[in-house]
Amino acid sequence: MKIAVCLLSGGLDSATTLAVARRDGFACHALSFDYGQRHRIELAAAARVARSLGATDHKTAVIDLRLFGGSALTSDIDVPKDRPAAEMSHGIPVTYVPARNTIFLSFALAWAEVLGSSDIYIGVNAVDYSGYPDCRPDYIEAFERMANLATKAGVEGAQRLSIHTPLIDLSKAEIIRAGLALGVDYSLTHSCYDPDPEGRACGHCDSCQLRLAGFAAAGSKDPVVYRP
Amino acid sequence: MKIAVCLLSGGLDSATTLAVARRDGFACHALSFDYGQRHRIELAAAARVARSLGATDHKTAVIDLRLFGGSALTSDIDVPKDRPAAEMSHGIPVTYVPARNTIFLSFALAWAEVLGSSDIYIGVNAVDYSGYPDCRPDYIEAFERMANLATKAGVEGAQRLSIHTPLIDLSKAEIIRAGLALGVDYSLTHSCYDPDPEGRACGHCDSCQLRLAGFAAAGSKDPVVYRP
C-alpha cells in the first residue's frame, strides 16, 4: 500500500484532506504539532479524527513556536473577533504564525523520508485562506521543488516527492460538501482560535466565521458546540 | 544595525559562519537546536561561541527529531568510524538526519520574519560536505526561492530574504584559515558525533576526521581535546 504523510491540525480542512488521502488509497501517517497554540484543544480533535478516518499512525511533534512570538495564536496578542468578510480577505491577520506551514511541511518531509514515502498531504486553501502567504499555490510549488533537492531521493533521483493540496481551489462550502460525501464526522473537528475552557467554539474569530459561513453555504448545520 | 539570524550548532563551520556574519556588520541572533542529537554537548559549545563572538541573542529550539528516527545521530544506529576519505565523499552516510537543514532553516525563517530580518546565515559546505543532500548550492537556492514566497515580506514585496552560505565553496582548511583570521577561538567549538562522557572528541567519526585533516592542511593544531 502506498504511504502518505498527512498534516492534521484537527480542524475542518485537515480532516477533509485526510479523508481525501484515504480515498486516494494511501496508508496515512498523520502528523500534528503542539506548537504553543492557544487552541491546544485542537490536538485532541486531531487524535479523534485520525482514529475515525483510519490513519495508520498519528504522531504529535512538540515544537514551541512561542520561542519567537509574533502571532496572536502563540502569544498574548488578542485574537480578532467579528471581522467583516471583506476585511478577512485582505492583508495578513495577526493570527498568522510566521513560517508555520514551512516548519510543518519540513517535519512532514523528514517523516516521509524515513518512511520511504513520496506523498505529503496538506489542507491549505487559497480561496478562504484568511490572508496567509504560505497557503498560496506558488508557495507550495516552490516548497515541492526545494523538497526534491533536500532529500536522499532527490540526490539519487529515486522518486519524486509530491505535495498534495486537494482543497487549494475549493471554497469552504465545497470542502464541507466533499468531506460529508467522504463520511467525515465534523463533530470531531475543532476550528476555533479562542475556545472557552470547556472547548466550546467562540463563533466570532476568523476561523469560526469562515466555518459557519461555509456550513451555511453548503446547506448543512455545523455539528460542533458553540458557546452561548 | 542590520539584523541576521545565524544557525549555530557549536561546531567549527557554524562558528566560522557567525564570525563572517559579524564581520559583514550584522547584529547576530544565533539559533541552535536541541533535536535529540547524541552529541548534545555541542549545545554548550554553541552558547560559548555565541558569547565569544558577540551575538546579540542566542536561542535554542527544542525539537525532538527522535520522533521519526532514521539517523545515526538521533537513534541507536552506530556512528561510523575511521572511514577512508574516498568513502566519506561518496553516498549519503547514516549520520544524515532527514530534512534537518530544511527544518533548521524553517525555524530561522520564522525568527527572521518576527525580527524583521532579511538575512539568514548557515554554515553549509559543498566541498567536505560528507555526502549530505541538504548542503548543496541548488538546494539552498531552492530554499531561498521558497522562503521568499512563504512570508509576509514575500507577499508584500517589501524585502528579499537572503540565505548566506559563506563557506559553501571552501575546503575545511580554507574555513579554518578564514576563522583564525577573524579571531575564532576553535577551542570553544565541538564537532565530534560521538564524544565520551567528559565531552572529549573521539577522533575517528567522519566529523572528527574532516576536522583533523582540515587543521593539518591549514598548518594549524586543533585546540580541542581528543580522548587518548
How is this structure best described in words?
With 228 residues, chain A is α/β, with parallel strands linked by helices. Chain A is 37% helix and 11% strand. The first copy, chain A, contains eight helices and five strands. A five-stranded parallel β-sheet of chain A has the order 3-2-1-4-5, sandwiched between helices. In chain A, helix 1 crosses helix 7 and helix 7 packs across helix 8. Chain A is globular. In chain A, 53% of the residues are buried.
Please summarize what this structure is.
The structure is a homodimer. Chain A has eight helices and five strands; from the N terminus they run βαβαβααβααβαα.
Instruction: Tell the overall outline of chain A.
Output: globular
Q: What distance lies between the first and last C-alpha atoms of chain A, to the nearest angstrom?
A: 46 Å
Number of domains of chain A: 1
Q: Biggest sheet of chain A: strands side by side, in what order?
A: 3-2-1-4-5
Structural class of chain A: alpha/beta
Per CATH, the class of chain A reads: Alpha Beta
The overall pLDDT average of chain A reads 88
Report the count of strand segments of chain A. Answer: 5
